[in-house]
Amino acid sequence: MSALSYGLQDQVVVVTGASRGIGLEIARELLAQKAKVVICGRKQEGLDKAVAELKGGDDLLAVAAHIAREEDADRIFDGAVAKFGRVDALVNNVGMNLITPSLTDADYATWQKIIESNLNGTYLCSRKAGRIMKERKKGSIVSISSIAGHRAAPAMGIYGIAKAGIEMMTRVMAMELAHYHIRVNAVAPSMVKTDFSKPFWSNNEIHDQIVRGIPMGRIAEPIDVVHPVLFLLSEGASFITGQTVMVDGGATAV
Ligand SMILES: NC(=O)c1ccc[n+]([C@@H]2O[C@H](COP(=O)([O-])OP(=O)(O)OC[C@H]3O[C@@H](n4cnc5c(N)ncnc54)[C@H](OP(=O)(O)O)[C@@H]3O)[C@@H](O)[C@H]2O)c1
């Protein structure tokens, strides 16, 4: 565990897409902070590996689920309530991209696939979590967006549109759920070193080009995203809702 403490002990937190990458690191830090954690991913093999690595024991539940399927999304939260009795927080971490041509050249199946996992899945999980949290009049939701939701970028058009949609969903849900004491926020990272973005950062030329656009002069590590997420989940952020925090080393500030 880091030296930072967020007061999240015994909080029941669902982290979607946590079998690897940023989600896995969020789950790891939540367990270190003594939270109860529910993770999901589509592939059982990836989840088994994550469970073995996280060593969360009774504080960890893994559910194989595709978040864009309504019954799967519901099953994640039903499992969380069955095991831990409630859901205090949700981290919408699932995201995927396919290298896409321009919007006019893209085929509709590609559009649907990207919108489905990023936007539809985030909606289904947020809706289910919101319904559960409304009963207790308490909760926090944090979604992982991207700077691609703020800037048009080659090969990221549909993905960026989905992320912009997630940020608008964040504002709408924040407005609708504020009087239930449920906060809804997002973080928008620039490139983070995970498998997802490996085709970009593992290429020296592309790597250097990306770093040149980041005032802090480096590509983010997953831990750079973990702490802003945990802060937004915590009581320390009790008057912050409907916001997207840029986690980009200053990239969108210049
Ligand atoms: N890495 C970056 O450069 C970067 C930058 C900005 C924002 N982000 C955002 O950060 C988040 C995490 O990215 P990452 O780099 O950690 O990704 P990653 O390494 O590809 O991990 C994605 C995780 O999501 C799961 N997943 C994917 N689609 C799913 C679905 N439909 N239902 C359930 N689980 C699903 C994957 O497991 P399965 O394959 O088994 O389903 C995996 O556990 C995403 O929202 C991404 O858009 C990433």
Which terms would index this structure?
8 helices, 254 residues, 7 strands, Rossmann fold, binds NADP nicotinamide-adenine-dinucleotide phosphate, alpha/beta
Distance between the termini: 33 Å
- Order of strands side by side in the largest beta sheet? 3-2-1-4-5-6-7
The overall number of domains is: 1
CATH topology: Rossmann fold
CATH class group: Alpha Beta
Give the mean pLDDT: 97
Say which CATH homologous superfamily is assigned: NAD(P)-binding Rossmann-like Domain
What hetero molecules are bound to the protein chains?
A: NADP nicotinamide-adenine-dinucleotide phosphate
Helical amount among residues, as a percent range?
40-55%
Biggest sheet: strands, sense, closure?
Answer: 7 strands, parallel
The CATH architecture can be named as 3-Layer(aba) Sandwich
Question: What's the number of extended β-strand segments?
Answer: 7
Note the total helix count. Answer: 8
Rg over C-alpha atoms, rounded to the nearest angstrom: 17 Å
Overall shape: globular
Strand content: 5-15%
Give the H and E element order.
EHEHEHEHEHEHHHE
The low-confidence parts are none
Structural class: alpha/beta
